[in-house]
Amino acid sequence: DRLLRPVFVGGNPLTGTCRRNGEGGCRCGAAEYQAMVRDASPSPLDAATLPGFPPPALCAETVAAYRNALSSRRPGHPWLALPDEGLLVRLGALAREGGEGPLLCTRAGLLMFGHGREVVREFPSYFLDYRERYGGGRWSDRVVTGDGERGGNVFDFWRRVSARLTSDLGRPFSTDGSPAPREGAGGPATRPGSPRAPRPRRPAGRGRRRPAPRRRPSPRGASRRAGPSSARARGRSSPRRPPGPTPA
Questions:
Q1: How far apart are CA 78 and CA 65, in angstroms?
Q2: From 38, 113, 223, 235, which residue has the greatest number of CB atoms within 10 Å?
Q3: Of 123, 145, 55, 128, which Cα lies nearest the Cα of 91?
Q4: Residues whose CB is less than 8 angstroms from the CB of residue 232 and which lie 6 or more positions away in sequence, other chains included
Q5: Closest Cα partner for 72 from 244, 245, 248, 190?
Q6: What is the pLDDT of residues 84-130, one digit of tens each?
């Protein structure tokens, strides 16, 4: 059970924490120990407030882009009538410590909407990298956070990469009066992070080539919070972030 971790021998959990790796027990490093401590918390880490990160740490342009996306997808949503601060509170991007005091960014809010420099200040290892490769070399095109384009947060990165994944997919003709173009058959599968995302052809020179499989951002060294047997069993789940309000 993750709530009982870390399990250690001796008097120092930093040097005595152990884990099973399928072949037997082995000692954990400092990073693995810290991950166990985080996962043992019953409270969602994403909702934790960050002292020293007031609302201006969030990128106003990114928030406006999210509002526009929400308005296009769900034009009658009641949250659209709220000011930016109210919208961010409803989304869980801003909160008050213990329900009192000034509004502060949450961990999830900073990652989703924060200025790139502010995100790195709290998460020094934060770096998202998307590459396309059509021939030789390490990549033919690349999108990264921290290049100075847009906000450098997760939502801006998702918008840039999503546009590339869906640019060559056809969209069916629609006469139902939809306010926005409908997604094609492959639309849902091309959302970043989906394991089903196809690799559409893209023009290269005068002809067209099938690019090498696109590299998608993935958390390096990530591990399951629940074990494989618990993940396969029905009726039990242990998400790192419980389901929350996601109107878009």
A1: 17
A2: 113
A3: 55
A4: none
A5: 248
A6: 999 999 999 999 988 888 999 999 999 999 999 999 999 999 999 98
**Long-range Cβ pairs for the range 73-79 (8 Å, 24+):** 73/180, 73/248, 74/247, 74/248, 75/179, 77/247, 79/247
Strand (E) or helix (H) holding 26: strand 25-27
Q: Which residues of 46-82 are buried (b: 16+ CB within 10 A; e: fewer)?
A: beebbeebebebbbeebbebbbeebeeeeeeeebeee
Here the tokens at position 77 are 């949503």
DSSP letter, residue 102: S
pTM, two decimals, is: 0.63
Alpha-helical regions (H) of the chain: 13-16, 30-39, 60-73, 84-91, 107-113, 116-122, 154-166, 228-232
**Spatial distance between the Cα atoms of 169 and 234, rounded to a whole number of angstroms:** 36
Q: What are phi and psi of 169, to 5 degrees?
A: -90, 135
For 43-80, how does the pLDDT look when each residue is reduced to its tens digit (9 = 90+)?
778 888 999 999 999 999 999 999 999 999 999 999 99
- Name the token pair of 203: 């023009």
Query: Is residue 33's pLDDT more than 60?
Result: yes
Q: What is the pLDDT of residue 61?
A: 94
Judge residue 24's burial from the number of C-beta atoms within 10 Å of its C-beta, 0-12 exposed, 13-18 middle, 19 or more buried. exposed
Compute the distance between CA of residue 129 and CA of residue 114 in angstroms, rounded to an integer: 17
Helix or strand or coil: residue 182? coil
Integer Rg of the chain from CA: 21
CA torsion angle for 25, 14, 122, 131 (degrees, to 10)?
A: -30
